[in-house]
Amino acid sequence: MHKDNMSCCSSLLRLMILPVAFAVLVIASVAHGAVVEHTFNVGNLSISRLCQPEMIITAVNGQLPGPTINVTEGDTVVVHLVNQSPYNMTIHWHGVFQRGSQWADGPSMITQCPVGPSGNYTYRFNVTDQEGTLWWHAHISFLRATVYGAIVLNPRTAAPFPAKPDAEHVVLLGEWWNANVVDLERMAFLTGVPARNADAYTINGKPGDLYNCTAANQTEVFRVRRNETHLLRIINAALNTPLFVKVAGHGFTVVAVDASYTTPYATDVVVIAPGQTVDALMVADANATASPGGRFYMAATPYDSAVPSGPPFSQTTATAVVEYVGEADDDAVPPVLPARPDYNDTATAHRFWSNLTALVLPGKPTVPLAVDTHMFVTVGLGVSECQPAQLLCNRSAPPVFSSSMNNASFVAPTSISLLEAHFSNASAGVYTRDFPDTPPVVFDYTGDESDNATMQFTTKSTKVKTLRYNETVEMVLQNTRLIAKESHPMHIHGLNFFVLAQGFGNYDEATAAPLFNLVNPQERNTIAVPTGGWAVIRFVANNPGMWYMHCHFEAHIEFGLAMVFEVLDGPTPETSLPPPPADLPRC
């Protein structure tokens, strides 16, 4: 990753480009719906938060958050990225399958080389068979701290909700640093020391009223009318922090997660990890006497899952205001604040995440019952030797912070993207196909006695797992005690998966398998593996390409908590990786 914001100067193997074939693919997908076109001008934005002097951030179209992409299922999205920033840039369309448009997925050096300063690239993709809420963000360095926005996927017919919403609101949760986030990421890599925590949490780019700042325009306001039903499209765009979300005097009915419908689930708190989305209905039916001023706080507070302890985090609360039209009086009593969970309330987090189930609908994918490949993958922290490019790393000290999956700490290539190497059959020297199906040793994964220097040590590599087209994979994700137990939000690009079961401690197939939900398991693209525990997921590799799987804590991606699935072509042109577009950026 550290190479992403350095000029790419290596010459690449020039691929055979077939623009006509690519155009035919796009035209075929356009026939399903409209073409929705945007231009993303990425550049400098001068902004002030927390009553600090104005600082320069990187943003899209001068907005924080960036623009919402609003489409209908089956539409084709065309986004012209114009990079006017001083940094290399890519955009990832988080949760979009990218079937037939694999080159548009966006992670730097996985599916494309970055777009350099003054460069441009056009992303084209279709949103067939996806409804709900997804999002887009920079996928390079720490730039997604300010380069992010929502994707609203409207259904062609009425959504299967228990009530029809009268209105809807995008609720983008984020983190704010009074610092240049690119500099933070660069220094973290060079030294091998994780970057410091954020200064604040935000709702739609604003920290709210509970920080020591009285400046104007620091708090988002959602206006509602009594007894209306509002759809909240909640997205956690924070770099490193899961969040609890509550609204004083109100409850929620969760109806979708990660653009997959759920059985309606009533709750007074939403728990959402970085990368996840939650669609929740909220009825504006608060007791009027609870807030004579007609204003209620929405509060977002951090969930700290680390055991025994993790890195420092901001023990603060972001707020927005839910304001009743016709009842609110800005000069009256302040908004009501909800009771908030303790920062380490793992019981509440697990209850929310484990109680969700899918709404099974005709014609929609169901969990596959036959499994071709079983994988048992440890996810966690560790240490490794300083890399040559870590110029400020203390080589006379013990190994530096790292992270890994099955003790393989991932390093992205620097001269050619993995997808280009895969397409041109040029993997030699770029990646190897030996990502292991099991950890190198079996040990007490969550036991305190396992946290020793020998078990913590990992090595750097660029390993992928190769899958046949349509292969069904079952993966046990096992958190470890190494350094600390922690809930890691694991995201897979290009594919959704079913969550069969989750629990704490070491995974035991004999006791876990009878509990598998094979009827209506929740479908996701990002799962928060329970802290000091495990989750079992199952998916079909029905999308050829190179698909990144990684922890959605930016601090952990930086240090190697990732791997890649190489999915081979299917038997037809429609099930094969198309040639790259003519304007694909070069390193």
From TrEMBL:
* Gene3D superfamilies the UniProt entry points to: Cupredoxins - blue copper proteins
Instruction: Give the family, as the similarity comment puts it.
Output: Belongs to the multicopper oxidase family.
Give UniProt keywords alphabetically.
Apoplast, Copper, Lignin degradation, Metal-binding, Oxidoreductase, Repeat, Secreted, Signal
The note on the cofactor says:
Binds 4 Cu cations per monomer.
* Coarse class of the protein's main subcellular location: secreted
Name the domain of life this protein comes from: Eukaryota
Q: Which reaction does it catalyse?
A: 4 hydroquinone + O2 = 4 benzosemiquinone + 2 H2O
Q: What does this protein do?
A: Lignin degradation and detoxification of lignin-derived products.
PANTHER family named among the record's database cross-references: LACCASE-24, MULTI-COPPER OXIDASE
A GO BP entry is: lignin catabolic process
The cross-references to InterPro entries, in alphabetical order and at most eight, read: Cu-oxidase-like_N, Cu-oxidase_2nd, Cu-oxidase_C, Cu-oxidase_fam, Cu_oxidase_Cu_BS, Cupredoxin, CuRO_1_LCC, CuRO_2_LCC
Q: Which SUPFAM superfamilies match?
A: Cupredoxins
Q: Where is the Plastocyanin-like domain?
A: 43-156, 168-326, 434-569
Q: Where is the signal peptide?
A: 1-33
Q: GO molecular function of the protein, one example?
A: copper ion binding
Enumerate the Pfam families for this protein: Cu-oxidase, Cu-oxidase_2, Cu-oxidase_3
Q: Where does it localize?
A: Secreted, Extracellular space, Apoplast
Locate the coiled-coil region(s) and give their ranges: none
Q: State any GO CC term.
A: apoplast
Origin species, per record, is Oryza nivara (Indian wild rice)
Q: What is its EC number?
A: 1.10.3.2
The name on file for this protein is Laccase
Give cofactor(s), names only.
Cu cation
